[in-house]
Design brief:
The protein is an alpha/beta fold. The chain has three domains: 7-177, HAD superfamily/HAD-like (Rossmann fold, 3-Layer(aba) Sandwich); 184-339, Orthogonal Bundle (Tetracycline Repressor, domain 2); 361-476, no CATH class. The chain has helices spanning 20-31, 39-44, 47-57, 69-80, 93-103, 120-130, 145-150, 161-168, 185-192, 205-209, 216-243, 245-249, 258-261, 266-284, 289-307, 315-334, 341-370, 385-407, 425-441, 449-455, 457-475; strands spanning 7-9, 85-92, 106-112, 136-139, 154-157, 173-177, 376-377, 380-381. The strands form two sheets. Strands 3-2-1-4-5-6 form a six-stranded parallel beta sheet, with helices on both faces. It has a two-stranded antiparallel ribbon with strand order 7-8. Helix 1 (20-31) packs across helix 3, helix 16 runs antiparallel to helix 17 and helix 17 runs antiparallel to helix 18 (385-407). The chain is elongated, with a radius of gyration of 27 Å. It starts with 6 loop residues before the first strand and ends with a helix.
């Protein structure tokens, strides 16, 4: 009985949903940002040198790399039928061997070592080992054309529509696996974390606080500022998601994010980030210089937070609170309204409290999975939960106190004809913050308190009541 002909399988984009070279690149940049200066020199020395340097400086947890599950099931079935499977990839040999060892069904590995094994070079290597038409090949892009030309049977996996159309005109594919997650509006919005744009509504706070909401020029500038901040924030989220791929894949809920799950490729995420950066710059150029400085500072601090600061206990939540407050400051510049001391003080305390809520929800999830043993998350230990709870609730009550002091100050008379109605804001705010902390204490809080507020009917009711009291205080 003749042995089944071996099947050679491409790795990046075929077996895996991701590109390991890009994952290595961003992993290295996250740990050693200065390597960015060396990249042009490495590229000039060739792809083999680049791949070798990146693989030497960063190791991937290959068990977490998202795979094309339907194609993986097909490979398991082929292996069960006695077929020899070979991993044939342009990735550096160390990385390819780790992937092959993880899956355990590959009989051998053909990968980049002294020669960049892509396109014609890969086809030559397979012909040298198996002979012309002595193997079948599964790939995902037009780069694999030389391999299919030398293969007995061809398999197309996870190809984009253009490649599918072009290659289908040249080859008869034994089987096609259409596994791509197309760039739908829903996927795009998830990648941009569009729900997080609710945070950027803070740019409207100075506009409303100064009662200029009906002045079109101020409102127009604030709307532009809202979109610019939204693009900048989404850009920061994409950078964070790209740099945190491995951590997100191990998280109890973040593993479903488009980049972490492989629904959105790292390449697409990078292009999307460039588009967002251009849009944010163009919109900011139309606004006052103070807004430009604010959004630039926001992006710089966010980048440092992503790379380093989020792993430093207490400083991380202080930075998060500052990033929230920066939206209020930027809104003051866009609306050409003075941002009062009271507004800044209130913002600092309430956002410090909510930042701790965010960190606590993550830490509680770690505590549950760790059971009896103490566990660590971004520099915090599960034993820190009582301390963080005390800090967070104290900061929440300080925010209510600042609100009360503002209502009792002479400044409020200039904007509100009946400031006595504003006193109702204090119990409303205390009720909402108390509810947030009660739910957090019960370990029922979402990873992001903003998402909780958007989904919680009671929060909407309390916010509506607060708005009514403010309107009545201004107009009564």
């Amino acid at each position: 009985m003749n042995k089944p002909i071996p099947l050679c399988v491409d790795m990046d984009g075929t077996l895996l949903k991701t590109d390991t070279l890009l994952e290595l690149l961003f992993g290295v940049l996250r740990m050693q940002p200065w390597v960015l200066l060396l990249l042009p020199l490495w590229c000039l020395r060739g792809k083999v040198f680049l791949k070798r340097e990146l693989s030497a400086r960063c190791s991937l947890n290959v068990a977490l790399l998202p795979a094309n599950t339907d194609f993986l099931a097909f490979l398991h079935a082929e292996k069960a039928n006695g077929r020899a499977l070979y991993l044939a990839t342009g990735a550096y040999r160390d990385v390819a061997q780790q992937v092959a060892d993880h899956y355990g069904f590959f009989s051998g590995v053909l990968a980049t070592s002294d020669k960049n094994l892509t396109g014609c070079a890969k086809a030559e290597a397979m012909v040298a080992q198996f002979g012309e038409k002595g193997f079948d090949y599964a790939g995902n892009s037009a780069v694999d054309r030389p391999c299919w030309e030398q293969a007995r049977q061809c398999y197309l996996v996870n190809a984009n529509p253009a490649a599918t159309k072009k290659m289908s005109a040249l080859f008869v594919f034994e089987k096609t696996f259409d596994l791509r997650s197309y760039m739908t509006i829903a996927l795009l919005l998830r990648a941009l974390r569009i729900h997080q744009w609710a945070k950027n509504a803070l740019v409207f706070v100075p506009l409303f606080a100064s009662h200029h909401m009906f002045a079109w020029s101020y409102l127009q500038n604030t709307l532009l500022g809202f979109v610019a901040f939204g693009c900048c924030a989404s850009l920061s989220y994409l950078i964070n998601d790209i740099s945190d791929l491995e951590a997100d894949r191990q998280h109890r809920s973040k593993y479903t994010r488009p980049l972490a799950s492989g629904e959105l490729s790292v390449q697409a995420g990078f292009v999307l980030a460039l588009l967002l950066a251009c849009t944010a710059v163009l919109l900011s150029a139309m606004l006052p210089l103070g807004f430009v400085y604010s959004i630039a500072a926001y992006f710089i601090v966010t980048s440092f937070y992503t790379l380093r600061l989020k792993h430093i206990p207490i400083l991380d939540v202080a930075v998060l609170a500052g990033l929230y407050t920066s939206r209020v400051v930027a809104g003051g510049f866009s609306a050409q309204a003075e941002t009062s001391f009271w507004l800044l003080a209130f913002s600092c305390f309430i956002f410090f409290s909510l930042a701790i809520v965010k960190r606590l929800s993550e830490l509680q999830g770690i505590e549950i999975s760790a059971k009896e043993e103490p566990a660590q998350c971004r520099g915090y230990w599960t034993s820190d939960i009582p301390v963080l709870t005390g800090l967070g609730t104290a900061s929440a009550m300080m925010a209510v106190l600042v609100l009360a002091l503002y209502i009792n100050s002479p400044d409020v008379v200039e904007l509100y004809s009946s400031p006595r109605f504003l006193w109702a804001l204090c119990p409303v705010m205390a009720l909402w913050l108390g509810r947030v902390w009660l739910i957090t204490g019960r370990n029922e809080m979402h990873d992001d308190p903003v998402v909780f507020a958007l989904r919680d009917p009671m929060s909407w009711l309390l916010f509506a009541l607060a708005g009514i009291f403010m309107v009545v205080g201004a107009m009564a």
